[in-house]
Each structure stands twice: as C-alpha cells, then as structure tokens.
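Predict both folds.
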Amino acid sequence: MFSTETRLDHTVPISVIEPFHVINKALLDLLRDLAPVDWTRPTIHKDRNVKDLTAHLLHGSIRRVSSLRDSYRSPMPSFSGIEELVAFIQQDNREFMMGMRRVSPQVLIELIEIYDKVLISLFEGMDANADGLGVAWAGETVSRNWFDIAREYTEKWHHQQQLRDATERPPLYAPLLLTPLLETFARGLPFAYRKFEAHDGVFVSISTTDPVTLGWTLKRERGTWSLWSGINPAAQTSIIVPAHIIWRIWTKSLLSDEARQHVQVVGDMNAVAPLIQFVAIMA
C-alpha cells in the first residue's frame, strides 16, 4: 500500500535505542564465546582480522564518548571533498587498530562493555530532533540527532555481522534488528539517485524479501527525488532485492556485478545502477 502522506524525511525518525541495547549484548556474548583461533580469522576486510575489526568497534565508541561526554575534539585538517574525509577516517581507523594489536582480546572486551554502555546512555539523553553530526552518505552536512544515532547503529550492526560471518556465528537477522538498519540506509536513497534523470511524476519502488519484507518508493518531483514509505503499484520501475543481500550491497560487502544477480527488476533496468552503487558507510 502506498500513501502520499508518508514522505520519509527528517520529521519521521527511526528509533534504534532498543535494538542498540540488543546488539550490544549480542556482541559481548559473541566475543566471550570466541576461541583463541577465532580472533585471528580473516574478515571481509583484507587488512582486518576478527581482533582488528573488534578494535574498530571499540574505537567508534570511545571516539564518540570523548566527543559527546567530554567535549573533546582533536584538531582535524580541512577537507576539499568527501574523498579526502574518507581517506582521513580510514587512516585514523588503521592507526587505532594497529595500536590495539598489542592489547589482549580480554581487555578489548572489557573496554567495549564499559564504553558501549556509556555511549548508549549518552544517546538516550540527547534531544533526538536537535541538529547533530551530518550523515554524509545521505548527502547531509547537518542531520537530526536521531539520524546520527541510527547511523551509529548501522555501523555497530554491520561490523558485528561481519564478525559473525568470519566466525560462522548466527546472523543478526531478527526483524527488531534488521528492519531499523535497512530503514536507516534507505534514507540515503534520494541522495543515491540524485544523478539519475527522470521526468517529474516517475516512481521507482524498491522492496526487500527474506528475512524481512520492506518497501519504499522514490518519487521524482521538481527535478529531485524524495522517499516515501510503501510500494506504489503505479511505479514505472519496481526493484526487489533479498534483505540479506541488500545490506551487503550498501556496505561494500558485495560488488555491483555480483549484486545484479540477486536483483529482480520490472521496468527501467537503468534504475538499478544507483541502488547497487549506493554505499551507506564512509568507505
């Protein structure tokens, strides 16, 4: 069912606090269950094993706690574009992970338990509708706090899922956990389609199946795209992707050529490219 009353913009927040608590506990349970050999297993990231990726999760929490709780911000260079910002972030991540290679897994677990809890408490105390950090992959330089918090949830979810893939543990596919992830990523679709030209009045519907069924519709109006909840039955193009595939596409865990094999399209085949080239992480 499609409704013109459900435009998904900054006035329609996504709540992730409850699922955040769930995945934080799941992460601790996962890490405490790892055998010594598991910590050295490779992940989808060529330069990160399980321990490195775990350190990266810790890095995200203590960096945000330092900023939100302590108002501490180290000097940063100016950036001429998104590419320079991404390069800076990746270098910062590598330096932290390298430093933590001399730290035991047990210490990592203890620090994660402390600072993930502090971070959630800080998020709970924030005004969800106040201006916060911009979600760059959605084209925003300033975002509402709820969107920034939801973006942080997607970081924690997808990296933990990569750890689970690497160690052959069950996925985080419960609807409570997967739905807010995909709903958050989907908010970046108008930005992803910004260069895709179409006449005003054109609709592109996107839906997921297995293990959660969700749907959104992009509407072309006044030369721009907007996002609406639900599937428009009159859409000129309909795209269907399994939910367990689309999160991998949007986090660069699946290359575009391979992703196309999992996409069903009725309508304009060219409308698929922005969807499978969209990256909802800073990488």
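Second protein follows, with its predicted structure tokens after the sequence.
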Amino acid sequence: MTAIPENKALAETATAALQARRVALIVAVAFFMQLLDSTIISTSLPQMGESFGVPAVAMSIGITVYILTMAVFVPLSGWLADRFGARNIFLVAIALFTLASIACGISQNLTQFVAARAVQGLGSALMTPVGRILVLRNASKSELLNATALITWPALFAPVIGPVLGGFITTYLSWHWNFFINIPLGAAGLALVARFIPGDRASETRPLDWPGFLVTSAGLASMLYGLERIAHPEDGALPTVALLGAGVLIGWLAVRHLARAKNPLLDLTAFKVQTFAISTLSAGTIFRVAINATPFLLPLLFQVGFGLRPVDAGMLILAYFLGNLGMKTVTTPTLRRFGFRSVLIVNGVIASLSIMACAAISPQTPQALVVALMLIAGLSRSMQFTALNTLAFADVAAAQRSSAATLSSMLQQVAMLFGVAVAAALLNLSQIARGGPALDLVDFRLAFLAIGAIGLVASFRFLALPATAGAEVSGHSPRN
C-alpha cells in the first residue's frame, strides 16, 4: 500500500533535482557569456584604439564605464527580482547584454563604444545576482551543492581562457568578433530561460529604498573605480586614494542607513548567519583576493618573467584551466566525506602553497613540473571556489536570499578588482624598490609569495566554523 506513495515521492524528488540542475546550467551559460566578455576585451584594446583613431590607453574608458555602470545597478538587482520576478529580470539582463554586445561590435567611434559598454554594464549588473536568486529558489538544500558547482565553472574558466581566445580572435579574425561571439550565447540563453525556467514573483513587494540605492551605489562605484585605478599607477595616486577613501566613507554611511531603514534596499541580517558572513564577508573575501590575483599574475609571469611567446604562455595556462575542470567530479564527494570546514582549511592551505610555489619556478624549471604545478593550482582553486559559493547560502533563509545574493555579488566584485589591484601594486612596488627600469622575475616572486600568504591567513580563519557547518547541504556527518 505504501509503494505507490513512496515511488511518487521519489519521482517528485528526482524531477525537482533535474529542474534544479537544469536551471543552474542555463544560468551558467549566461554567466559564461558575461565573464568571457569581461576578460576577452583586454587583448584587443590596441586594435580597437587603432580602428577608432585613438591611443590604446584611451580605450580603458570602455572598461571603466562598464565597471561603474555595473556598480551602480548591482544593489538594485534583488529588489527588481522581487518586484518583477527573477525570471523576467534575468531575461531582460541577457537581452540587454546581447544587444549591447552587437552595438559594441558595430561601433564606429569611441563615443558609440562607450555608450554600448554602459548598457552592457547594466545587463551584467542584473545578470549575476538575479541568476543566483533563480538557482537558490529552484534548488533544495540537498541539490544546492551540485547547482552551485555548475554556476561556479564560468568564474573559473572565463578568466583563464578569455585572454587566450581574445588573442586568437583578434589576430586571425578581428576585434569585432570578441563581441559578436556573444550573439549565439545570448540567443541560446534567452531561449532556454523562456522555455525551462518557471516564472516567480515575491508575494509582497517592498517600496524602493531610494536613499539606500543612491548611497550604496555611490559607495560601491567609488570603491571599484579606485581599486581599478591601482593597477594603473601612471594615472596618479591622489585620485585613487580619494576614490578609495570616498568608497569607505560612503560605504559606512550605506551600512548605517540599511541597518536603520524601515524597508532597506538590502537586508543586512544575512551577515548574522555565520556561514554566510565567514564565506562571503571575512575569510571568503580575503581568500578570493588571492584566487583572483593568480590569473592576472600567471600570464605576465610567463610572458614578461619567462619571455615566452603568448601562444606558449597560453598552453601553460591551459593546464591551469584543465585543473579547474578536473576537480568538478570530486568536489561533491569530497565535501560529503570531510565537510566544509575541513575542506576550506586544508584545501585553502594547498591552494595558497601552490600560489607561493609559483615563486620558485623559472625558465629553467622542467616544463613537466610547471604543468604539474598549474594543475594543482587549478584543482585547489576550483574546490575552494565551489565550497565558498555553496556554503555562503547553506543557512540563508528564503526571505534573505535576494539580498544575500546581491551582497555576495557586490563583495565578489570588490574581491576580484582588489585581487588584481594588490597584485599590480606588489609588482610595481617591488620594481620601484629594486630601482629597475622594467619588471623582472624577482618582482613576480615577491608578488606570488605575498598573495599566497594572504590565502594562508584566510584559510586558518575558517577554523571559526563549526564542524557541522553546511552539513545539511553537503550531507557530511562529523561521525563519518
């Protein structure tokens, strides 16, 4: 008599699991398009400048406008998802991003290009947090780990393959195709979202917190632009310091407002959840700085420090990419066996040491050892990313998800730019202290050692987590 209900329950569970993975995979396609575009453009700036009749350095405004537009609208994404439905906003985000990509590709001058990049930034601002909201709403806790693993791979792969792919496209086709490549990805994303992701809308809609929106956006924009400028010291230190100072001050005012407002734009109570706070705000942000600095340093190490051709450096970076890919099959069983706390500590130490080991290699190091190091660095980076992103939402309540997804996206943007900024600053400071006319291998060694040390500090911060942290998501039992 109980067989039929049990079979029905199993079938419903299997259907729900399939739906959660399907939604995560569709969101991952959109994330890949977005992140690939962010990394691929840097390789074609000189050719674009030549096409527009402006110096290559002037093209950096395209990156700046993208970052600032994204910073302004990211805080609004959670409210829009609750007000108009996450699925609808996600469709709008993909459509905006795809149309803006076409506009970038057909731009005839710098003004047109900057305008198109601003629209791209708006689409990007909505895409990441709203995509996470869709995944959280469609995945049960038992499926959250697999779903998070799927939406994490774009963040791992795009920064690695983007510059290589961009260089190939710019060399053998033209810079326009770095943007036109988004057309099939965007069209596929729109069709898949419309077909397979169900509509949703919050039962209650909050009024828009305009003061919260203005102060949060201004603080985030100042901080991100200041961090982006650190990588370009030739622009002068005073504006950079002023922007960072303004970002900190306005950010403090934003937190103060959000904590007191009756209907705040962002619900900060998610930070009272220990797993979210540690994996997103404190240890998680610090470790992401180290993780995000590495893809910036490695191509420079191989090309400037080792003197390799871009294609040869790309082949070594490919091993790093394969390491990211290879870890996906073992992440879930590893977390189930050992739990989030142990994995984040032990794997964090391994990842940090692999970053520091990059300081020991040289052009004379056997290539097999370099490839092996790249594989280990990629494997440990992938594991840490997935564990952090999954644990962040393991204990977040349904009512907190929209704000938590938005806060997580904001902090990850800060960590990404901060990682690049710290790496660039370390290289420049080392060169200045050495008095050299150009970067040398010793500068890269100091940078890798410092970045690895940052990762080590963050790894031991995870000791504050209980042994059962995220157990409901990972399926880990401390008695195992």
